[in-house]
Automatic annotation (TrEMBL):
The keyword Transmembrane helix applies. Its main location: membrane. Residues 1-20 form the signal peptide. It is a single-pass type I membrane protein. This is Cell adhesion molecule 3. Keywords: Disulfide bond, Immunoglobulin domain, Membrane, Repeat, Signal, Transmembrane, Transmembrane helix. The keyword Transferase does not apply. Belongs to the nectin family. GO terms for cellular component: membrane. It comes from the Eukaryota. Residues 316-339, 403-434 are annotated as: Disordered. Pfam families: C2-set_2, Ig_3.
Length: 434
């Protein structure tokens, strides 16, 4: 059955070709359909094998003669003669508009034969526009965007991308423009946004045959508001007793946190509430030990970051050694001064974790002080020894001036005389009045 059908179709095709050859008229003008983009130039070419000593002419869709041989018949500077011979008449129309579309007829002036061909004018789509969410959108909300392009003929196609990822539209709408010739095309997309979509580029591109391998597109950047995050950074990174310490509450988010509340766990009153994210300790000491809480707040909510500061007594600790390997977990006799940080959402607080102990050079200060004290003690002891030695060498009986007027005064006078007599004697004793 199938071979018989194929044979019949082949027979009909041969018959049609033979009939065409038989009906071919050498005096019949030949031309072709043309397609042109609005604003471009179209060339109309008409040829005939036997013009019978007559002239070719072109007419527009309104049956107005454009050219009769070499003669211009219609005053339109857009229409120009390209070539005129007994067998050919070629003209061009520049700055084509949509109203130029229609059937153009080539005919032989003295004969009733003519050929009509269609000129199709393509409407160029305008650059697409994106509407919706010109203002920031909160994370986890649904973004709804609309892309629109007018002036296409036939109707254009629109496609979406977010970054390098294609987006499937939710529907396309085609509406005829008021001129009755071109169309406006609209396309919609919907998707849920996350904080990763902040600053993401959404692109709408129009595809149309009039663009000739080029494309027109519009890009819109998304602005996504999301909850803040925060962490506390110490400066210096490893705080030591006696040094200045700054705690920086680093708040991130969109929008960026503008209010920072500093508190110390166990304290009733807040330490600081301002737009300043820095808490300063001019001179770090043991009383500063504790857990410090920074609450960073933006229009999207609040987040809590915690920092644990432990300043230990240095005078009872040996000087630690610095190792390049990670330090062991803090023990009862290890940390000189150590701190730890933890960040938690205001909705789900995170646990506090201690950082590794940090060696300190503060014990050097105590060693210097101890050395100074030792020198002072040594000098005092030396002074006492010298004074004692002096007193031993100058021992004797000492009488006050009041004793001179007492009953023993003669003895005192005798003692003075003996002292001044200068009689040498190894057993004599010298007595003085004081």
């Amino acid at each position: 059955m199938l071979p018989a059908a194929l044979g019949l179709m082949l027979l009909l095709a041969c018959f049609g070709a033979a009939r065409g050859n038989l009906s071919r008229d050498e005096s019949q003008p030949t031309t072709s359909d043309e397609t042109v983009v609005a604003g471009g130039t179209v060339v109309l070419k008409c040829q005939v094998e036997d013009p019978d000593d007559s002239s070719l002419q072109w007419s527009n869709p309104a049956q107005q003669t454009l050219y009769f041989g070499e003669k211009r018949a219609l005053r339109d500077n857009r229409i120009q003669l390209e070539r005129s011979t007994p067998n050919e008449l070629t003209i061009s129309i520049s700055d084509v508009v949509l109203s130029d579309e229609g059937e153009y007829t080539c005919s032989i002036f003295t004969m009733p034969v003519r050929t009509a061909k269609v000129v199709t004018v393509l409407g160029v789509p305008q650059k697409p526009q994106i509407f919706g969410h010109e203002q920031p959108i909160d994370e986890e909300k649904i973004a709804r965007l609309t892309c629109r392009s007018s002036g296409s003929k036939p109707a254009a196609q629109l496609r979406w991308k977010k970054g390098n990822k294609e987006l499937k539209d939710e529907g396309t709408e085609v509406v005829e423009d008021p001129n009755g010739k071109t169309f406006t095309v609209s396309s919609r997309v919907e998707f849920r946004v996350t904080k990763e979509d902040n600053e993401a580029e959404v692109t709408c591109t129009v595809d149309h045959e009039s663009l000739q391998n080029s494309e027109r597109s519009t890009t819109q950047k998304l602005q996504v508001h999301y909850k803040p995050t925060a962490k506390i950074e110490p400066h210096p990174q490893y705080p030591r007793e006696g040094e200045k310490l700054q705690l920086q509450c680093d708040g991130q988010g969109n929008p960026i946190p503008q209010e920072f509340l500093w508190e110390k766990e166990g304290s009733d009153a807040p330490l600081q509430l301002s737009s300043d994210s820095v808490l300063i300790f001019p001179f770090l000491n043991k009383s500063d030990s504790g857990t410090y809480v920074c609450t960073a707040t933006s229009s999207m909510g609040s987040v809590v970051a915690k920092y644990n500061l432990d300043v230990s007594d240095l005078s009872q600790l040996p000087t630690p050694h610095v190792h390049s390997t990670p330090a062991p977990p803090p023990g009862p006799s290890q940390p000189i001064s150590h701190a730890s940080m933890a960040t938690a959402s205001s909705f789900t607080p995170a646990p506090i974790q201690d950082a590794s102990p940090v060696p300190s050079t503060s014990s050097t200060y105590h060693a210097v002080i101890g050395g100074v004290v030792a020198v002072i003690v040594f000098l005092l002891l030396s002074l006492l020894i010298v004074l004692g030695h002096y007193l031993i060498r100058h021992k004797g009986t000492y009488l006050t001036h009041e004793a001179k007027g007492s009953d023993d005064a003669p003895d005192a006078d005798t003692a003075i005389i003996n002292a001044e007599g200068g009689q040498p004697s190894g057993d004599d004793k010298k007595e003085y009045f004081i």
